[in-house]
Design brief:
The complex is a heterodimer of chains A (351) and B (716).
Chain A lengths: L1 H6 L1 E2 L2 H4 L13 E6 L3 E3 L2 E4 L4 E8 L10 E3 L4 H7 L19 E4 L8 E7 L5 E6 L10 E6 L14 H14 L6 E4 L9 E5 L4 E6 L4 E7 L22 E5 L9 E2 L8 E8 L2 E8 L2 E10 L2 E8 L6 E4 L4 E3 L3 E3 L2 E4 L1 H4 L2 E6 L2
Chain B lengths: L5 H10 L9 E6 L9 E6 L5 E5 L4 E5 L4 E6 L7 E6 L2 E6 L2 E6 L9 E6 L12 E6 L5 E5 L2 E2 L19 H4 L3 H6 L1 H5 L2 E2 L7 E5 L6 E6 L7 E3 L5 E5 L8 E6 L27 H7 L5 E3 L8 E6 L11 E5 L4 E10 L2 E11 L7 E6 L5 E5 L9 E7 L8 E6 L3 E6 L13 E6 L11 E6 L1 E3 L8 E6 L7 E6 L7 E6 L23 E2 L9 E3 L15 E4 L2 E4 L10 E3 L7 E9 L4 E6 L8 E6 L34 E8 L2 E6 L2 E7 L3 H8 L17 E2 L6 E10 L5
Antiparallel strand pairs in B: 1-26, 2-3, 3-4, 4-5, 6-7, 7-8, 8-9, 10-11, 11-14, 12-13, 14-15, 16-17, 17-18, 18-19, 20-21, 21-22, 22-23, 23-34, 24-25, 25-26, 27-28, 28-32, 29-30, 29-33, 31-32, 33-34, 35-47, 36-39, 37-38, 38-47, 39-46, 40-43, 40-47, 41-42, 41-46, 43-44, 44-45
Classes of the chains: A mainly beta (351), B mainly beta (716).
Chain lengths: 351, 716
């Protein structure tokens, strides 16, 4: 064990030249990130007994919390968790690293986006070591398992890692599977207002509808969204699309499907009902009652618009490669007679 | 229902909280499918008795307690943080962008209608703009609370709602994280409200969805609840402008302290709220009904809930969750001079409870259902049922009411040992109202108490304070005979003095058993303490004198000095209070439990120059144990300082200027080691017997005043 302690030194540019004096690095570097929701990614790592590797610890927690990274002896997790609660005046200067004989290696306390590297030699004794963050309040859930000379079991059942990490592994495995279509997911999306609705349709077609300004924002084909582990976070993350965009409505938050000349006329979102799992959006604007129901074909997307009570011709935003079942083009808009506005079909081709 | 998971026991360890069984309550976790996000944003009971829960991954699931199975009712919601049942096939959920009624219209058990009731509040896209609630009133309207944004992040390119400029245009708020950190972040204010009704509680009409701004001044109001009389309560979280976490009694039109929300007040034409002087804000704000002392009671209080009849003896009271500890808190509220105020005390600490208690609801059988969450902060996840088991009861506080001169306390069960009342302790403190994050406990002081005899039921007694009540103070009690000894009462109002005063005590000389050792400017209670000369010259000598309550040792005078001791020499369990002023570089001391040779314990009185604390520093247990490092910050110098010694049985404690700075247990390993390394190592029976109090003549001038002592009853 003593050898290990000596082996765990900070690696900085100044120290690089002295590395020859240290044990020879004999394995691939191990990179561990602190991620959202008080977790380490990956939650497990493997080394051979006596092997010396470069550890990289990166604080990539978007919630701006500080973290450290400490490797500890097998069976000492509870003791370290307990020790990390003993806060005194010196705790801050120690970077909240407990003064405990089970600590084999440690980094400084890193704020968001900082990283630190160090050389670590695995002890000769095989076993399941742990790595843990001892910033106050974190150690109970923020730890991982370092397998030295031991084989992994199924991660979903691995009691050496926190339940959060087991759950995350299950979720990530689920997320890799193809999404069950159709599917509605409200969350922050890129390139759209904050009240976004992402929808996966059959035929691998997808779209994003904005409930803030009541209009279709963009469409794409292929996989759905990279939701990541959003639900474990503070909610800041914006999801992006996974497939290929084939139509983008651009504009901004003041661009609506139905156009009125009076800029004070704004849409009022009323929600949606699910028809065969697909949403039919409902809203009002300038006294008009509107529904939009979006379906897919192997070739693209169809938006079935119904303006129920129009008395005048209706101006509909149709920028880009949109084909309409009725109406007359005027720049980015389509002018539709009241009679045609009750069953207008807009077709967006993915080709 | 399965028993607790590993994570629970680890959590308990984290807070040093009991994992032993509670005498009357039990906690059973509710199984939720592995791999599913188990963070609970909202819970309610459907008319058919099933439990509807909203999870942070956007699902609403329904749990059937009879079969212990879950079914998915709704999905795809954006961070749902509250849910109320409308019927067996309908719930209303507040999600980040709106209040939504979700209904299964075709009876297949899965919702197909997501009707937007109200989305008339702003969204800047900042992550901290959570929406909480909905709390449904009897008329079918909903209360929703809207978080302010955090300057931990900027806003998004597109927002929903009107932008509030206040000299900082929207473009400045839509920047990269790096630019944000160096620029607008500071000017924005730690928490900001740039889109409508952030930092407000709003009321939403259940019929037409119309939104009425109800009350302002909130920061992170993660919890709304009604009491039995229909009063609305909203919790808020410690931070900027919140010295500690709070529970507000919320009424229409009032402002509750966090200024960011003020510009959304109708007709507001004031400046940037950050520029309003604190004194003016202070005048505008309505203070909290309850303070949750940070780290003592709660760090992050959540949802308050009314306790139904049949849940122990607590029907009509309220509970509130706490995110950062495995704790549920009980609220004991009352109205004084028209103002709602009261106490909070732990209800359940550990005992299988997870951290992160975010939502609470009672089911039809008066079982408490708790749901946990954490997002990216410390907390927990999952759900549990909390029930009373068997007929067992336990000893805890049933009620506490403020009186004009103290408090009236009622216990659940008769107090078997009336003498134990004397062990009740009380201190009080207040909190700063300021822009910076949180507040320490300000103007903290211990209070002396007098107790009435128990009433006929043996459960109730009155506490009278030696000092007067102070408004806007938090009174922190310790009731050692209660299962949950900690109780904090927030005093806003003090009732008129119609309460009968307590019966007189046996000692007509002093109400609280205190003996003034310098009574009538006399040294009649003192004698010469020198071990060599005291029998020949029992008087105190010429160098010691008392005038205007101040005892002086003046070495410039001519005559005899030497130590002085109290004539009474049987002090063993006692409290001694005194003030001292030591001359420059001077040395003296207050000794106790001394033997015939005047060898014993000493509260060091010394004007030392060292920046370090040693066993010779002022307030040290001389030559045995140094005071805490913090005691140095108390600047014990030539001005008057207060000292306090409490010696009861094995427990020896020294205070300096209000702070406990030295504590040691007689006979402990620490004690033995301290003695072995001291000049007292060869003294037999060291400090083990009663003795007089001794004031040291160490050759330097020193003054003492307000020197008083009382004996403490102890079984030791």
């Amino acid at each position: 064990m003593r050898r290990t302690l000596l082996g765990a030194v900070l690696l900085s540019a100044a120290l690089l030249s002295q590395l020859k004096a240290e044990p020879k690095v004999s394995g691939r570097p191990i990179t561990i990130r602190a991620i959202e929701g008080l977790q380490f990614d990956p939650p497990r790592s493997k080394m051979d007994p006596g092997q010396t590797v470069l550890f990289r610890f990166l604080n990539r927690d978007p919630s701006d919390q500080p973290h450290n990274f400490i490797i500890i002896k097998p069976g000492s997790l509870e003791a370290i968790q307990k020790a990390s609660l003993q806060i005194d005046a010196d705790s801050i200067t120690r970077g909240y690293i407990p003064e405990h004989e089970a600590v084999l290696a440690s980094t400084k306390l890193l704020i968001a986006d900082q990283s630190e590297e160090f050389i670590f030699t695995a002890p000769e004794e095989p076993g399941i070591y742990h790595y843990v963050c001892t910033y106050p309040g974190h150690s109970m859930v923020m730890y991982g398992a370092l397998y030295v000379g031991q084989k992994y079991g199924s991660i979903e059942k691995d009691q050496n890692i926190p339940q959060f990490a087991r759950d995350r592994a299950v979720r990530l495995a689920e997320a890799k599977k193809a999404v069950t279509r159709p599917k509605v997911r409200r969350l922050f999306m890129k390139e759209v207002g904050p009240a976004a609705i992402a929808v996966a349709l059959e035929n691998d077609m997808n779209y994003c509808w904005d409930a803030g300004n009541c209009r279709l924002r963009y469409t794409w084909s292929g996989d759905f969204i990279d939701e990541g582990d959003t639900s474990r976070s503070n909610g800041n993350r914006q999801a992006g699309i996974k497939g290929e965009k084939f139509w983008d409505g651009s504009g901004n938050e003041l661009t609506y499907t139905i156009k009125f000349d009076d800029p004070e006329v704004k849409p009022d979102f009323k929600g949606y009902r699910l028809i065969d799992g697909k949403p039919e959006f409902k809203y009002t604007i300038g006294g008009l009652e509107v529904t939009e129901f979006i379906t897919s074909t192997p070739d693209g997307i169809e938006n079935h618009i119904n303006v129920a009570n129009a008395k005048e011709p209706v101006k509909i935003y149709t920028k880009g490669n949109i084909a309409a079942s009725a109406g007359k083009r005027e720049g980015d808009y389509l002018v539709v007679e009241p009679g045609d506005a009750t069953e207008l079909k807009l077709t967006i081709s993915a080709k | 229902m399965k028993t607790c998971l590993t994570i629970f026991s680890l959590t308990l360890l984290a807070w040093g909280i009991s994992s032993a069984q509670h005498p009357a309550l039990k906690v059973d976790s509710i199984r939720i499918d592995p791999g599913k996000d188990r963070q609970v944003g909202g819970i309610d009971i459907l008319p058919n008795g099933k439990i509807a829960a909203a999870f942070h991954d956007g699902e609403v699931r329904i749990y059937d307690p009879a079969t212990e199975t879950w079914s998915i009712f709704a999905s795809g919601l954006h961070e749902p943080l509250g849910l109320v049942a409308e019927g067996n096939d309908s719930v209303t959920v507040v999600q980040r962008p709106e209040l939504t009624r979700i209904t299964d219209t075709d009876g297949d058990g899965v919702a197909d209608s997501y009707e937007t009731i109200c989305d008339d509040f702003g969204l800047s896209g900042n992550y901290h703009e959570f929406a909480f609630g909905p709390l449904k009133d009897k008329e079918g309207n909903y209360f929703v609370s809207l978080n302010v944004a955090s300057n931990g992040a900027p806003v998004r390119e597109e927002i929903r709602g009107e932008w509030l400029n206040l000299g900082l245009p929207r473009e400045d708020f839509y920047v990269s994280k790096e630019e944000w950190k160096d620029g607008v972040k500071i000017k924005a204010g730690r928490m900001y409200s740039r889109v409508p009704y952030r930092g407000w509680v709003v009321k939403i009409d259940g019929k037409n969805g119309e939104m009425t701004p109800w009350a302002s001044g909130f920061r992170s109001p993660n919890g709304l609840g009604f009491d039995a009389s229909g009063k609305l309560y909203v919790s808020d979280n410690q931070g900027d402008w919140l010295g500690t976490s709070k529970l507000h009694h919320v009424e229409k039109g009032k402002f509750y302290g966090h200024p960011a929300s003020l510009p959304w007040t109708e007709g507001y034409n004031g400046p940037n709220p950050l520029e309003i002087p604190v004194a003016e804000l202070e005048k505008m704000r309505t203070p909290a009904a309850v303070w949750f002392t940070q780290s003592t009671i709660a760090n992050s209080p959540t949802q308050p809930v009314l306790i139904p009849e049949g849940f122990g003896k607590f029907g009509g009271q309220m509970l509130i969750g706490e995110m950062n500890k495995s704790r549920i808190i009980r609220l004991l509220l009352e109205e004084v001079n028209g103002v709602t105020q009261g106490a909070c005390t732990p209800f359940l600490d550990g005992h299988g409870l997870d951290m992160g208690i975010n939502r609470l609801v009672f089911d039809k059988e008066s079982r408490l259902i708790a749901g946990s969450s954490h997002l990216s902060w410390p907390g927990g996840e999952g759900m549990a049922t909390i029930t009373f088991h068997g007929e067992k009861t336990y000893q805890d506080i049933q009620a506490i009411n403020i009186t004009s001169s103290g408090f009236e306390v009622t216990f659940l069960e008769p107090i078997t040992d009336p003498a134990s009342l004397k062990e009740v302790t009380l201190n009080r403190y207040t909190f700063d109202y300021h822009e910076s994050y949180g507040s320490s406990q300000i103007d903290k002081e211990d209070l002396e108490l007098k107790f009435s005899p128990l009433d006929d039921s043996g459960k109730q007694f009155a506490i009278e304070l030696a000092a007067s009540h102070k408004k806007d103070f938090c009174y922190e009690f310790n009731f050692p005979m209660a299962y949950n000894p900690l109780l904090c009462y927030t005093v806003r109002e003090i009732p008129e003095g119609d309460t009968a005063s307590l019966p007189a005590t046996d000692d007509p000389d002093d109400d609280y058993g205190w003996v003034n050792l310098l009574k009538n400017d006399s040294l009649a209670l003192w004698r010469n303490g020198s071990k060599t000369s005291r029998n020949k010259h029992p008087d105190v000598g010429e160098l010691w004198s008392v005038k205007d309550g101040v005892l002086s040792l003046d070495k410039s005078k001519k005559g005899r000095g030497g130590h002085i001791i109290t004539k009474q020499d049987d002090y063993f369990n006692f409290e001694l209070q005194f003030e001292f002023m030591i001359s420059k570089g001077g040395n003296s001391g207050v000794k106790y439990r001394v033997n015939e040779q005047t060898v014993g314990l000493e509260y060091q009185v010394f004007d030392d120059k060292s920046s370090k604390v040693t066993k010779n520093t002022v307030a040290a247990l001389y030559n045995l144990k140094a005071p805490t490092a913090e005691s140095k910050a108390k600047k014990p110098g030539k001005e008057w300082n207060t000292g306090r010694i409490i010696a009861v049985g094995k427990s020896l404690k020294h205070w300096l200027n209000g702070d406990l700075v030295m504590e040691i247990e007689f006979g402990s390993d620490e004690w033995k080691e301290a003695v072995a390394n001291s000049k007292f190592k060869d003294e037999s029976g060291f400090a083990s017997k009663p003795g007089p109090i001794l004031l040291q003549d160490h050759g330097d001038d020193v003054k003492y005043r307000n020197l008083r002592i009382r004996k403490i009853m102890s079984t030791e």
